[in-house]
């Protein structure tokens, strides 16, 4: 009972914060460009609570919390009509409209940077040390006589500070001989290691055959925490684009895509591991939310930005018929994606196997 309650509460906090920050980005950008915001909503459906600010904006929390929106005056109107209405979104300049739309995803990326930096500043960062905890039998590491407890100091002239860096270098050099500088007890030596390789779905990566389990909390000064937070945010963004490339080119990772049910499960597991793990997950999901919204699919923020690029090239807005058709197409793609990731979630939870067995 407690696990279910904790998972539900953690998911509510997670999704609530991410949606609020995303829509706040749109809201603040709109106000800065002189566009009137009529409604700021967290969730869809009937309003459970609402109030009207002095600016005239209605702030509300609705029954279905899986999303939110900022309703701006003149959204969807033609330019001719909008130009006659002060504070209209459609009457704003093309650059202003693009800025307002992009501000939501950018707010999510900024949130991740703030969370990472704050976490490293207040608590520290858990870093897996480049120490070989286990050596797999018949692996390249075993053939090179590497031993449990060895600390890798350098690989091919590159100083190694954590285990993930070791993994990255090994993965990028399949079937290659690299010089490993090892610290073993009080001695230090360099050993040439012939890496192996492993292939999966058309991709080949290097293999060493080791496991790293030794981690420690690395503390940062405020300036160093800000730098490390920025580096982690950039690293996560690069990883996301790398994953998207693998998905598009090799269809690798399709089974790993998660939907709302998967996020609920992951959020519950992170909450069970403690505050630091939960905050770290919120930052990662925030990056994913921001980048997914920038994908150029109509309905998403990226789709609107793409239409503004086309408008800038053509020097005229797209016709209402084209915009409506694009929105319907985008909605269909989004619905198919939701169905697909939900099927993935149900498969991981065992629901699909249970139903198949029942049939």
From TrEMBL:
Transmembrane is among the record's keywords = yes
Q: Which UniProt keywords apply?
A: Hydrolase, Membrane, Metal-binding, Metalloprotease, Protease, Transmembrane, Transmembrane helix, Zinc
Q: What class of enzyme is it?
A: hydrolase
Q: Which SMART domains match?
A: PDZ
Q: Known CDD domains for this protein? A: cpPDZ_EcRseP-like, S2P-M50_PDZ_RseP-like
**The PDZ domain, residue ranges:** 118-165
Q: Which InterPro entries match?
A: PDZ, PDZ_6, PDZ_sf, Pept_M50_Zn, Peptidase_M50
Determine if Kinase is one of this entry's keywords: no
Would you kindly state one Gene Ontology biological process term found in this protein's UniProt entry?
Answer: proteolysis
One matching Pfam family: PDZ_6
Task: Write down any Gene Ontology CC term.
Answer: membrane
Q: What is its EC number?
A: 3.4.24.-
Query: Can you say where in the cell this protein is located?
Result: Membrane
Record field: transmembrane: 98-123, 270-289, 326-343
Major localization listed first in the record, in broad terms = membrane
Its membrane topology: Multi-pass membrane protein
Molecular function GO labels: metal ion binding; metalloendopeptidase activity
The UniProt family comment states: Belongs to the peptidase M50B family.
Output this protein's name: Zinc metalloprotease
Q: Record the organism.
A: Acidocella aromatica
């Amino acid at each position: 009972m407690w696990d279910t309650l904790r998972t539900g509460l953690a998911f509510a906090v997670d999704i609530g914060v991410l949606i609020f920050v995303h829509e706040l980005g749109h809201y603040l950008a709109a106000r800065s460009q002189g566009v009137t915001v009529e409604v700021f909503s967290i969730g869809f459906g009937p309003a459970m609570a609402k109030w009207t600010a002095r600016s005239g904006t209605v702030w509300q929390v609705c029954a279905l919390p899986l999303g939110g929106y900022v309703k701006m005056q003149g959204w969807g109107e033609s330019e001719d009509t909008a130009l006659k209405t002060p504070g209209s979104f459609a009457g704003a300049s093309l650059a202003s409209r693009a800025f307002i739309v992009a501000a939501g995803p950018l707010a999510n990326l900024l949130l991740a940077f703030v969370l990472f930096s704050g976490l490293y500043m207040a608590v520290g960062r858990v870093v897996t040390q480049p120490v070989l905890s286990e050596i797999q039998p018949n692996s390249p590491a075993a053939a090179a006589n590497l031993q449990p407890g060895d600390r890798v100091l350098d690989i091919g002239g590159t100083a190694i500070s954590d285990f993930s860096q070791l993994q990255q270098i090994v993965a990028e050099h399949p079937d290659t001989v690299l010089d490993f500088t090892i610290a073993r007890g009080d001695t230090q030596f360099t050993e040439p290691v012939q890496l192996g390789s492993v292939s999966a779905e058309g991709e080949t990566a290097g293999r060493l055959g080791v496991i790293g389990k030794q981690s420690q909390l690395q503390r940062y000064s405020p300036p160093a925490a800000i730098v490390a937070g920025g580096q982690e945010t950039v690293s996560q963004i690069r990883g996301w684009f790398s994953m998207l490339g693998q998905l598009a080119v090799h269809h690798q990772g399709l089974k790993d895509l998660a939907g709302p049910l998967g996020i609920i499960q992951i959020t519950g597991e992170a909450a069970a591991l403690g505050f630091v793990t939960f905050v770290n997950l919120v930052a990662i999901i925030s990056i994913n939310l921001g980048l997914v919204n920038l994908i150029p699919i109509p309905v998403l923020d990226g789709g609107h930005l793409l239409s503004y690029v086309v408008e800038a090239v053509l020097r005229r807005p797209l016709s209402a018929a084209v915009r409506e058709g694009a929105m319907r197409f985008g909605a269909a793609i989004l619905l198919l994606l939701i169905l697909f990731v939900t099927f993935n979630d149900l498969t991981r939870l065992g629901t699909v196997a249970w139903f198949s067995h029942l049939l």
